[in-house]
Design a protein that fits this description.
By secondary structure, the protein is an alpha/beta fold. The protein contains six helices and seven strands; from the N terminus they run βαβαβαβαβαβαβ. Strands 3-2-1-4-5-6-7 form a seven-stranded parallel β-sheet, with helices on both faces. Bound molecules: nicotinamide-adenine-dinucleotide (NAD). Nicotinamide-adenine-dinucleotide binds next to helix 1. This is SDR family oxidoreductase.
């Protein structure tokens, strides 16, 4: 039997993807639907959710949910809505993140922007993952969670609310992986590079720093996301961070060697 023929079990698996209205979250949610997995598309924008579910290959498997995940009560409402729509959620992807603006540097970012960035990335990620894990443990079912972190979990971005939220998420992945492993619930991080998606206003000149020679696209993230999420392909993988950046993070003060071609 081919290793890649059954990454998911559509009869039993169901997914919840936050930030599924746009960019990387949408690409992953639509790829899950493409594998026959019933998936909740959660996002703060009704318009984006509607477009993302409608343009899925099998819209009947895509369940829309709209709410502001900066609010704790919205996280509770999302868990209840996912229970009602899907029964047991077995796969969770946390991609929602507020927009980042270059003007919000350390001397400028206001308290509200700081709090919202942490609330959506870190607080919502924790409460949703824990809520889903408790349900999986009670049902004695395996599960898999994937958090969209960033290269800026480990290196500054001139946006301290963003880098600190991502650094917190990177540690949350390790905490949850260690705690939940004995219940067969895996927790990993996906670390995108410069992806011209929506959350990052990409300057095309950045491509010269990327060994693979181009900016990433949201669809570049989906194959690795599904591989890590899959309990058959990645059964022994937890607490890990998968960098999908075309080699961007290899950039330093040395230029690559000039090659005679
Ligand atoms: N694009 C990149 O280059 C890049 C690089 C590193 C990490 N990431 C991370 O990947 C994830 C996706 O990035 P993207 O570029 O696809 O972003 P995006 O802005 O295109 O999509 C994020 C989605 O989250 C939703 N969202 C924002 N606030 C929300 C809230 N309060 N409640 C619910 N939904 C909310 C937005 O409506 C949007 O649809 C983010 O976590 C981001 O930090 C992206």
């Amino acid at each position: 039997m081919s290793l890649f023929s059954t990454p998911f079990d559509p009869a039993r698996d169901a997914a919840l993807v936050t930030g599924a209205g746009n960019g990387i979250g949408r690409a992953i949610a639509q790829a899950l639907v493409g594998e026959g997995v019933r998936t909740v598309f959660a996002d703060v924008s009704a318009e984006r959710v509607s477009a993302a579910t409608r343009t899925s290959t099998r819209p009947e498997l895509a369940v829309p949910w709209v709410g502001d995940l900066a609010k704790p009560e919205a996280c509770d409402a999302l868990l209840a809505a996912a229970d009602a729509a899907l029964g047991q959620v077995t796969h969770f992807v946390h991609s929602a993140s507020p927009p980042r603006r270059e003007a919000d540097h350390a001397l400028a970012v206001d308290r509200r922007t700081w709090q919202e960035m942490h609330a959506v990335n870190l607080d919502a990620g924790f409460h949703l993952a824990r809520g889903l894990a408790k349900r999986l443990i009670a049902a004695k079912r395996p599960g898999s969670c994937l958090f969209l972190t960033s290269l800026h979990a480990g290196t500054p971005r001139n946006l301290p609310h963003y880098s600190t939220a991502k650094a917190g998420m990177a540690m949350l992945v390790k905490e949850l992986a260690k705690t939940l492993g004995r219940h067969d619930i895996r927790v990993n991080a996906l670390v995108p590079g410069a992806i011209a998606a929506g959350g990052f206003v990409a300057d095309a000149s950045l491509a010269k720093h990327i060994p693979l020679g181009r900016l990433g696209e949201a669809k570049d993230l989906a194959p690795m996301a599904l591989t890590v999420l899959s309990n058959t392909l990645s059964a022994y993988v937890t607490g890990a961070a998968f960098v999908v950046d075309g080699g961007l993070s290899l950039t330093n003060w040395f230029e690559p060697p000039a090659l005679d071609e």
